[in-house]
Amino acid sequence: MQCSNWIQNGLLYTAGELSVGELAHFKAHLESCGSCRRELEIYVDEKSRFFTSDILLDNPSPETDRKIREACMKIPRPISYTAFLSFSLRKIALPTVFLFIGLGVPIYVAYNINDAHQNAIAHSKATKTNPSPKTELILTGTQPSEIDSLQGDSIVQGNRPEVLKPMGDMTKQGVIPVDLRNR
Amino acid sequence: MDEQQEDRLEDRKEFDKWIKGDLTGFSALYGKYRTRVFSFLLRMTSDRDLAEDLLQETFLAALRNANQFDRNRSFLSWVFGIAHKRTIDYFRHAKVEREHQDQAEKSVGTRIETQEQFRSNNDLRAMIKEAIEKLDPLQREVFLMREMGGIAFKDIARIMNCPINTALGRMRLALKNIRIELEKRGIHAMQ
Asked: Each residue of B124-181: pLDDT tens digit?
């Protein structure tokens, strides 16, 4: 008849699976229990004489070994989630980003250069044909207070007020512009 | 760090090597454990050719399902789990075939004997193998996993889908029955 302690903990003790507390308890029990000591001795003896690798183990044939190794080499290795993420980042995401940067930046720059160039041409044409509205206002005798009030959206946005009368280039006619605000 | 933990770390390194594409990782793991897994399958099936087929299936399944490997477990216990499933599958499929085969053998009047049965009774190795083969399959499985694979009882319980006390009970019975078989042949422990 086996001791209940051996039934409960004996095999776990030999397998090294007892927790620290259980191990201490079982070791203390072994000191006092002859039955458990005897069971342990028998098992250790059987293990060393009968359950050894010489007795229990067999090798597969070399032919099987070769077949298995060959078959296993043919199986594609699994891709882990992190490896898959890194793979997609390397092979898809990064090239896409570089493609956008590579195409987007030159297109943006080319478009803006063209636009800026056209704006510059338009601006230079406009300044050649139309003198600045401010000068015209001065020349038509508009009061400074009126000028200030006209500097809102209407002039900036290019909508000429009705008081403006195009006079052409007055300097050619000997008129010298005077800044009335300093008077 | 004890030997078992070192072993587990080493296995994990080899496993990671293989996952990263280095085939020597798999080769090392196969070389290390093939004997134990093969012996387990051989004792479970008592058929060398079949055990070799199951060994191949086991390792191929391990490779195909490598993503399912829980790194907190030992590699060997995981492979033993696969071998256990393969053995059960085999017995399920073979059940019908065996019934037919038994009927055929009865009609012919002969039975194919395994190589082990021809061996001398004086051969300790053969006697122990015979004692193991006489065990109930569930007891034999626990015994082989523990003694051949060194699998922890908690892992055996997980593999066999039973409480740990059931696994321990089967192991105790296996040891008792082996002892009885050996005593019948005049071999006693503690001589």
From this structure: 888 898 899 999 999 999 999 999 989 999 999 999 999 999 999 999 999 999 999 9
User: Rounded distance, CA A40 to CA A29, Å?
Assistant: 12
Spatial separation of the C-alpha atoms in residues B48 and B54, rounded to whole Å:
10
What is the block-wise mean pLDDT of chain A (183 residues), using blocks of 10 residues?
Answer: 86 92 93 92 91 89 89 69 71 86 88 81 75 56 54 50 64 77 66
How far apart are alpha carbons B144 and B141 in whole angstroms?
Answer: 5
CB contact, 8 Å: A64 with chain B? yes
Report yes or no: B18 and B29 within 8 Å, Cβ to Cβ: yes
Q: What is the pLDDT of residues B65-103, one digit of tens each?
A: 888 888 888 899 999 999 999 999 888 887 656 665 665
First to last CA, chain B: 36
Under an 8 A CB cutoff, do B179 and A46 touch? yes
Which residues in chain A are closer than 8 Å to B4, comparing Cβ atoms? Answer: 16
| Nearest Cα to Cα of residue B129 among A43, A57, A61, A42 | A57
Burial B54-84 (b: 16+ CB within 10 A, else e): bbbbbbbebbeebeebeeeebbbbbbbbbbb
Residue of B182, B177, B191 lying closest to B137 (CA atoms): B177
**3-class DSSP state for residue A165?**
coil
> How far is the alpha carbon of A54 from chain B, nearest alpha carbon, in Å?
8
Give the C-alpha separation, B175 to B132, whole Å. 9
CA distances for A104 relative to A90, A93, A112, A125, angstroms: 21, 16, 12, 32
DSSP string computed for A12-43 = HHHTT---HHHHHHHHHHHHH-HHHHHHHHHH
The answer to whether residue B94 neighbours chain A at the CB level (below 8 Å) is no
ipTM score:
0.78
Q: What does the alpha-carbon distance between residue A128 and residue A59 come to, in Å, rounded to a whole number?
A: 100
Which residues from A are below 8 Å from B60, CB to CB? Answer: 68, 71-72, 75
**Mutant choice from B5, B17, B20, B128 vs A, greatest count of A C-beta within 10 A:** B128
User: Minimal CA–CA distance to B182: which of B103, B105, B120, B121?
Assistant: B121
Between the alpha carbon of residue A28 and those of residues A23, A45, B21, the distances in Å are 9, 22, 51
